[in-house]
Amino acid sequence: MHKLLQGIHLFQRDVFGEHEEEFVRLVQGQHPEVLFITCSDSRLNPDLLMQARPGDLFVLRNAGNIVPPYGEGPGGEAATIEFALELLMVQHIVVCGHSHCGAMQALLRHEHQAALPATTRWLRLADPTRRLVHERYGHLPDDEQLNVAIQENVLLQLDTIRTHPSAARRLAEGRLNLHAWVYKFETGEVFSFDPRVEQFLPLKVAGYRPSV
Ligand SMILES: [Zn+2]
Fold first, then answer.
1. What is the pLDDT of residue 73?
2. Residues 6 or more apart from 141 whose CB is under 8 A from it?
3. What is the C-alpha end-to-end distance of the chain, expressed in Å?
4. pLDDT value for 75
5. Are residues 44 and 56 in the same domain?
6. pTM of the model
7. What's the CA-to-centroid distance between 13 and ligand 1, angstroms?
8. Which residues of the chain, if any, have pLDDT below 50?
9. Which of 21, 24, 58, 89 is deepest in the core (most CB within 10 A)?
10. Within this chain, do residues 22 and 71 fall inside the same structural domain, yes or no?
């Protein structure tokens, strides 16, 4: 904690002044183009990864980058999506999973979660991913099953986003693009789902096309 408090001090002393104009301009409002949905994992830093500035990204984070289907769950995710689309008019939603995701590990080992009742209830929302991995990829080593679960979970969440009325309407009108990404933090690589080959491929910045 001390290191982080020291960080506030350094920010106020050395950084804020340099960018004060930018921060003051943001008082007028925010106009992010992207809703970025990702895991709470401390090893994934969206601003660092995309070199984003304040105002660039509207961010939704939780354990496992999960989006409950519309009408299910407590509604924080639904409210965030609705706000991003109806008020901020974001044009892109990225769901970004990441390597070594603890939530996906817990999902695959769901029989050992007696001490984590809230986590167990939450991860039930990703149960289709667990079943798919066990049925189709149960023969693979654990680390490969985990990588498949991370990818399949991102795709599952894009399906549940489509159940949200504000997203469904914009998708039908061609005003919203959905993107499925996986960030490998130990190499800095980002993989995006390409529906033409139905695979996650290294994200190439030049000529990048909305994925799904
Ligand atoms: Zn995670």
1. 65
2. none
3. 40
4. 82
5. yes
6. 0.94
7. 33
8. none
9. 58
10. no
pLDDT of residue 211: 63
**C-alpha 97 – ligand 1 centre gap (Å):** 7
Q: How far is the CA of 176 from the centre of ligand 1 (A)?
A: 25
User: Quick check: 65 and 123 in contact, CB under 8 A?
Assistant: no
How far is ligand 1, taken at its centre, from the CA of residue 182, in Å? 11
Asked if residue 211 is part of any domain, the answer here is no
Q: What is the dihedral of CA 41, 47, 51, 57, to 10 degrees?
A: 130
SS3 label, residue 36:
strand
What string of DSSP letters covers 51-83?
A: TPPTTSEEEEEETT---PPTTSSSSHHHHHHHI
Residues 157 and 65 reside in one and the same domain: yes
AA identity, residue 146: L
Distance 186 CA to ligand 1 centre (A): 14
